[in-house]
Amino acid sequence: MANTPVVAVGAPDAFGWRKVTIDDKPVGKVRSPRGLQKLLRRSGIPFSFDIRWHGGDSTVWPDHTCRRRICALLVAIGLLATAYVFVRIGISDAFTALTYPGRITGVIFLLLTVTEMAAAAATFDYWGKRRIRYSGTLILVAAAASLCASVVLLFVQIRGGRYTHWLLLWCVLIPWSLWALSVLIHDRAWKGLPNPRRIAIGVIISTLLAFANLAYTHVYIPATTSPLMEITPVFGAPALNEERTKLFVPFHIQVKNTGRIPVYVLGSIYWVRGQPAGAKPQDAARQRVIKSDEFIQPSGRPLNPGEEWEEDEVAVIDRPAEAPYETIKIETEVWVARKDRMAINDDYVTKRKDWTVVQNEKTDKLPPGPDPPYYRYQGIVTNSNEILNMTRGRQRITLWHTTDPARPFLFVQLGPPEENKPFHPRYSPKERRNHGRYGLVPVRGSMAQKPFAELLEKAKALAEHRLGTVTPTQGPGSAP
User: Fold this and answer.
1) How far apart are CA 259 and CA 225, in angstroms?
2) What local confidence, expressed as pLDDT, does residue 178 receive?
3) pLDDT of 391
4) Distances from the Cα of 349 to the Cαs of 298, 309, 352, 385, in angstroms?
5) Is 64 strand, coil or helix?
6) pLDDT tier at 217, thresholds 50, 70, 90
7) Is 436 helix (H, G, I), strand (E, B) or coil?
């Protein structure tokens, strides 16, 4: 009996493990009678041997293998789904985001992807033999990151006001992460971590600082900084033809981006209007449009800060001697969109279509535009980062430029590619909010105006000078 080994099985711990000792020497931990049988067999002791039980007899085995493996599988699937979202955002934004902070955010998401993947691998250890000391802490951090990201993405999507298929994933990940966190907190997954309270405070402070920085760079600065454009038309020297039946009024238009934000010039238009005597400046119905056209080509071109565009145009007034105008004025307008909030595909620049082509296209999903004649620019818009692409989806932008001589104007539509609304030359509050998200605004230039009589007299004087018919001015001492 002196050589008979003493086998003792300890009480189960919080994870269901029971410590096994032989002659007071630890030989391992087991979670089930089958595990105890394997351990004793390796030690050369039959399972029917007399065993000393502490903290419960041979029927006390709190571990449930099937439940534990299912729990590990569900947590791993959720972490891998979160990793897929993070890697999709990270790869896209790290290389193609339109802003520098956006690319930094992409790198951060790539680092979070590594964390999620490592945590998914750690689930097999944490719900297995727990040989890695901090596997539970890693999973806890990854689940918390999944919850924060899912809540933020859901909030952005709800605020964006558009359904995408990603909404279902956020709605699944949020309850999953709450469940995973409750399981990990109940199991005290941080057990064994030195100074867990200090580490938690440090993580919370770092997270708050990171979100504050992202809010400042992505929300505050873009919201308080707006595009600044200067559009200046200047009259040139007028001229008459030889028969004096046409008055040519040249003018120069200069456009400069004086702000700090690059923009897309989606479309441009100028109006040369003749105002009859007695008509008020605000009485547009009595003003005649002498000429109107676009002056920045091609539409859709970018205009970076400090960059300029210049164009020379000529308006022709028939039978100027009979024209009823009191003044001639030049007005301009351009539609711009912030280049740091969207990217337009090349189709917008290259595919200008006349109204006859638009109406004859059987595959065109757009409803009829304004009353002809007009031409149309159209392209697909992607957002400034992959987060917005997921929550808002892509947009289709369409610019209509009506060429009706009585009332030429520009009108921009922005909406989902599948949207098929009838044309209406008014913007709803929802459309205005959508325009604001992309910095899509019309910019009016300064107005140039001159008396028509002054232009005509100057043109006559220049014509007489060219013909050599100007009479020399007599001095005070000259003979009569």
Assistant:
1) 9
2) 94
3) 86
4) 6, 17, 7, 22
5) coil
6) low
7) helix
Signed CA dihedral, 208, 204, 97, 78: sign only: negative
CA dihedral (358, 360, 361, 362) positive or negative: positive
Q: Of 356, 291, 294, 299, whose CA–CA distance to 330 is shortest? A: 291
10-54 pLDDT tens trace: 888 766 778 888 888 888 888 778 888 888 888 878 766 678 888
Distance CA 19, CA 248 (A): 102
pLDDT digits (tens, 9 = 90+) for 242-269: 888 999 999 999 999 998 889 999 999 9
pLDDT band at 227 (very low <50, low <70, confident <90, very high): confident
235-331+449-467 sits in which CATH class?
Answer: mainly beta
| Dist. CA 391–CA 477, nearest whole Å | 86
Burial (0-12, 13-18, 19+ Cβ within 10 Å), 258: exposed
The rounded distance, in Å, linking the Cα atoms of 1 and 3 is 5
∠ Cα 283 400 409 (to 5°): 15
Instruction: List the beta bridge partners of residue 251.
Output: 235, 313
Cα 267 from chain centroid (whole Å): 22
Buried b (16+ CB within 10 A) or exposed e, 386-417: bbbbbbbbebbbbbbbbbeeeebbbbbbbbee
Q: Are 6 and 23 in contact (CB under 8 A)?
A: yes
Picking from 379, 320, 375, 384, the residue whose alpha carbon sits closest to that of residue 346 is 379
Q: At what angle do helices 65-96 and 166-186 cross, to 10 degrees?
A: 130
Q: 149 φ, ψ to 5°?
A: -65, -40
Q: Taking a C-beta distance cutoff of 8 angstroms, is the pair 265, 297 a contact?
A: no
Where do the structural domains in the chain lie, given as residue ranges? 7-53, 65-193, 235-331+449-467, 342-438
Name the CA radius of gyration of the chain, rounded: 38
Rounded CA separation 459/447 (Å): 22
Q: What is the pLDDT at residue 368? A: 65
Whether 257 and 304 have beta carbons less than 8 Å apart is answered as yes
In sequence order, the β-bridge partners of residue 26 are 21
Whether the predicted model's global pTM rises above the 0.70 cut: yes
Among 116, 90, 117, 88, CA closest to 104: 90
For residue 70, what are the contacts with CB-CB under 8 A and spacing of at least 6?
none
Q: For residues 334, 335, 338 and 342, what is the CA-based torsion angle, rounded to 10 degrees? A: -140
Q: Which of 349, 336, 375, 334 is nearest to 233 (CA)?
A: 334
Q: Is the pLDDT score of 307 beyond 90?
A: yes
